[in-house]
Amino acid sequence: MFSGVQMAASGHSTDVLLGQIDAPPRGTQQLSRLVSEGRVDGVLLQRREDFDDDMLAAVLEGVPAVTINSRVPGRVGSVILDDQKGGGIATEHLITLGHSRIAFISGTAIHDTAQRRKEGYLETLASAGLRSEAAWVVDAGWEADAGSAALNTLYRGANLGKPDGPTAVVVASVNAAVGALSTALRLGLRVPEDLSIVGINTTWVSDTVYPALTTVRLPLQRLGEVAADVLMEHLGGRALTDTVVTQPTPELLVRETTAPPTRD
Fold first, then answer.
1. pTM (2 d.p.)
2. DSSP state at residue 134
3. Nearest alpha carbon to residue 261 among 186, 122, 174, 162
4. How wide is the angle at C-alpha 144 spanned by C-alphas 106 and 117, nearest 5°?
5. What is the DSSP letter of 250?
6. How far from 79 is each of 61, 71, 82, 110, CA to CA, in Å?
7. Adjacent-strand bridge partners of 217
8. Do 97 and 210 reside in the same domain of the chain?
9. Cis amide prior to 73 (ω within 30 degrees)
10. 4-20 pLDDT per residue, tens
């Protein structure tokens, strides 16, 4: 994604300052100081999952800002991916393989990106005449430890990988999917024979874990390009907008963690 930001910014003869914000409250203070001291002309922000909407809107009120793959109320633009489509593609792949009981590991409940991916999962199930159950959906987080904990929750509370339980799981982030995969194997589940796993987004780790993760690749470079362009155009006088990157579309990459269910 950052390569896309750099590419677009260089086209506008603009320098990019890359920084990482800590967890609140320190991170809130860092961002507020950056804005109030006038160190930057504008901000592109990929929000942390522990920054809520009100916090971000208040901090960014004094500077032109665009959030990347997250929407924040207030005087802030946004550029997001077609996350519903990504969640739908992952779910449709599992349905096509023959799975009818499919669980979902989401990001945090306050993060709108995770909720859009969850909507894609639910809408695709409904379109196929299938349903989810409350115990099959876990709001967790983006990192491996969150995915690991969520898989444990599904295994204990929803009979994941057992008779009458889900035979597959969609995970809202690839890092969380790595944690879920590791825990499934540690619990003695065979992947994909007992449990199929699909992660949304793709990184180098998708190929290096064993078995290699089936994922949905998102156009992150294009996301960065569009976000930088929207901010640059706003600095040039154009109104801030809320933009959805629809091209290129999310792409399914089938690897080794998905297969037809071995039981109904």
1. 0.87
2. G
3. 162
4. 20
5. P
6. 17, 8, 10, 18
7. 251
8. yes
9. no
10. 776 776 776 777 766 77
